[in-house]
Amino acid sequence: MKRISLTQYLVEQQRQSNALTAELRLLIEVVARACKTISHSVGKGALGDILGSADTENIQGEVQKKLDVISNEILLEANEWGGHLAAMASEEMETIHPIPNRYPMGEYLLMFDPLDGSSNIDVNVSIGTIFSVLKAPEGMGQPTEQAFLQPGTAQVAAGYAVYGPQTMLVLTTGNGVNCFTLDREMGSWVLTQRDMKIPEDTKEFAINMSNKRHWHPPVQRYVDEMLEGKTGPRGKDFNMRWIASMVADVHRILNRGGIFMYPADLRDPASPGKLRLMYEANPMAMIVEQAGGAATDGHGRILDIPPTKLHQRVPVFLGSKNEVEVVTRYHGE
Ligand code: AHM
Ligand code: MG
């Protein structure tokens, strides 16, 4: 079979659709290159002195792992000089990162979770990088946090890299979802799955069950009914998977269906769920919708949520369309 590289795929996209500009193509290639570097560090593990804590905290009060910090640095450095970006924002930085004056300023905004699934770093379980691309508002001048506060529907590209047994890059520019596998010997991304589609029905769910006692009634009901299996109201047996790396859970769902949930719960009303809207929920919601799935916060589409702050958290229900529809309907009843 003829191998198509990421570069070739992007050039073809650029020729076919006007949506993919030369700047956006460069941006995606640079992000993909940074992910390659992160993958290389991840692969070294203890041999690269990248495991363990960095002994610092991020804006969310979470202890940063060395690899969180390293991955953030790799993405910042890779994306600063190309002239394609106006600013960046990251899970690991309190405020936005404008492009230094010595470089030209471009028209895009890049957001990322540099290393998602941090609790899995030290135990050699799949982790990943998630990214989201927006256009800077016209005539913005110096970028501010406000420029980033656009709903997910405004994303022009989104993707993730998963560092597992294989390193893969899953990408959408609003024209379906494609998957590239890193050829580690050649150092290039090769198109390995075209137009990924999530099955509409599923018998597999993903949720951290240890939080069950804190869930709101609609989530309790939904999960209880699945657990009742064949003889319960759902009339079928369900299986459960929870990797604790959103990238890995979403990647499984893209390949064979499923529903992923990180609901809000009763513990802290000020904190609706764990996952962050701008650089976790929105890019994943765009990918999932582009693959024919659905993504809601239990009430409405994640992509329609008007953001109020950079590190805002949201409840997340995403994956196979018909299951997301059931749990969302229970929230309304
Ligand atoms: P992180 O960005 O700090 O790694 O946190 C996000 C991760 C998701 O990848 C995953 O779905 C979730 O946290 C797991 O949470 P929990 O440890 O509560 O199961
Ligand atoms: Mg994360």
TrEMBL record:
GO MF annotations in UniProt: fructose 1,6-bisphosphate 1-phosphatase activity
Residues of the signal peptide: none
Cofactor: Mg(2+)
Residues annotated as binding Mg(2+) 1: E91, D113, L115
Residues reported to bind Mg(2+) 2: D113, D116, E280
EC number(s) on file: 3.1.3.11
Domain Fructose-1-6-bisphosphatase class 1 C-terminal: 198-331
Major localisation: cytoplasm
Keywords attached to this entry: Carbohydrate metabolism, Cytoplasm, Hydrolase, Magnesium, Metal-binding
Binding positions (substrate): D116, G117, S118, S119, N208, K274
Pathway(s) this gene product operates in, as recorded in its UniProt entry: Carbohydrate biosynthesis
Subcellular location: Cytoplasm
Details of cofactor binding: Binds 2 magnesium ions per subunit.
UniProt entry tagged with the keyword Lipoprotein: no
UniProt record similarity statement: Belongs to the FBPase class 1 family.
Listed PANTHER family: FRUCTOSE-1,6-BISPHOSPHATASE-RELATED, SEDOHEPTULOSE-1,7-BISPHOSPHATASE, CHLOROPLASTIC
Record's protein name: Fructose-1,6-bisphosphatase class 1
Origin species: Massilia terrae
Lineage: Bacteria, Pseudomonadati, Pseudomonadota, Betaproteobacteria, Burkholderiales
Gene behind this protein: fbp
